[in-house]
Design goal:
It is a single chain. The protein is an alpha+beta fold. The protein has one domain (18-100). It is 26% helix and 17% strand. A hairpin with a 5-residue loop joins strand 1 and strand 2 (52-54). The chain is globular and about 35 Å long. The model has no long low-confidence stretch (mean pLDDT 87). The structure holds zinc ion. Residues 46, 48-49, 51, 73, 75-76, 78 line the site of zinc ion (ZN). Zinc ion is lined by residues 46, 48-49, 51, 73, 75-76, 78.
Length: 106
Amino acid sequence: MDTFIVDPIYHIDMVKKLYTNSELIRAQRSSINNRDHLMRSVSCGCYSCETIMLANSITDWKLEDDGGMTAICPFCGRETIIGDSGMPMKKIFLQEMKKFWTEYCK
Ligand SMILES: [Zn+2]
């Protein structure tokens, strides 16, 4: 494992929500069948364990029914990895994703 991209830790309840629900829903879609996306990303993040890592540190993939590949987090084993889409992966983004999807899935 190489260097990690360090981002300041924010407490999500103390800051205004930075992302819209539609952005968070769109981001969730990119955690499925995301091999091509991750091949184009430098960093990626897991919104289950909120770890930011280099995209090339993903080594486990789940084969989907349609033949696509979904990244598996090397830290928590969940399929909740999102590539950086050309923007630096931020801890606050992962925190908002986690909060949104935890509440949404209740
Ligand atoms: Zn994880």
